[in-house]
Amino acid sequence: MSTTRQHPPGGLGREPDGTGPASAVPADRQWRTLSLRQASGIVPMARDFARQALYDWGWLPASGADRRAAAEDVLLVVSELVTNACLHAEGPDELRIACSPKMLRVEVVDGGAGQPAPRTPHRAGRPGGHGMFIVQRLCLDWGVTRTADQPGKTVWAELAAPA
What we know:
The chain has 3 helices and 5 strands. The protein has helices at about 40-55, 65-90, 130-140, and strands spanning about 30-35, 90-100, 105-110, 140-145, 155-160. The model is unreliable at about 1-25 (pLDDT under 50). A hairpin with a 7-residue loop joins strand 4 (about 140-145) and strand 5. About 30% of the residues are buried. It is about 30% helix and about 20% strand. The protein has a 5-stranded antiparallel beta sheet with strand order 1-2-3-5-4, with helices on one face.
């Protein structure tokens, strides 16, 4: 993977099962996956990748303020989850985004053993530590999935599709 262009123009990464473009995925759920291993500029690359997926899925260009806010929420959640993996888990391995008619799911896979959690108590004026609080506030749900006998985790978050 090039460090100057992370994926070819119009390239959206592979599907989670490696089978190819999203057109092979059932219409009710479309996936995009981006490898982030050994990449540079990971957070902007992840945001650009997510933005392209939102265009492809019709979330962008937004026709109104609510749709625009929903798309910006997705991009912020992607930024926060990828940044947390950079800061606390030696970097993310992969970004996955799935879209269905009612929601969008963001997954960040990393090799870290830590357990992300919102800082409690949350103090808005205190620098740093707001990432998971933001994710918690913007998402329908979020969590961590681990695979037995394998290091690392998948941090996931689900956001409502715009009306």
